[in-house]
Amino acid sequence: MAFFPTRDSHATGSIIRLKLREITQLFNSLDPSPFSEQDLDHDAEEFIVSWARELPRHHILRLVLTLDRPLSPPQTHETVGESVRHYFAYRASINRLELRNLFRQGRTSLLIGIAFLTGCLLLVQTIARLDPSGAFWGIAREGLTIAGWVAMWRPMEIYLYDWWPLKRRGTLLLRLSRMKVEVTEGQH
User: Fold this and answer.
1) 173 domain residue, yes or no
2) In terms of DSSP H, where are the helices of the chain?
């Protein structure tokens, strides 16, 4: 399998080229699903995704597959294109589920973090009202305050940073699910 990315000469489009001996190299050979629902080979998927990520977002993507051997029935140029787009649409839907689960985890973590922070701050106030002196109580107050704020670390990480990469990947997968796929056969 050889991968040759190129950019189209048009200002609004980009081509990713893959040269394959046969179409089966593009798909996961262990996937028992019907052809139209088969997963792409992991290396081929990563290659397509990584090149598409580097191309300008406003460009229309095209995948050109050059095969040494012709397609065998019932595979056609159209079914290959549909299969590739179907795969990326499926990956985009999985990505949406991952993003939704991340936000659900963020909400749960936020509720737990707020409850824990509130409990810690209430204990700090209780200790302060009792006005115990000594290093131990000072450390206890500071430790509870820090522990309460540390409990907020994960929800803040999710809402500030973790969701961006998933969102970007989902947008890219949607672009790939709409790309035009062309198959050329028998060119060495």
Assistant:
1) no
2) 42-54, 77-130, 135-150, 153-157, 163-177
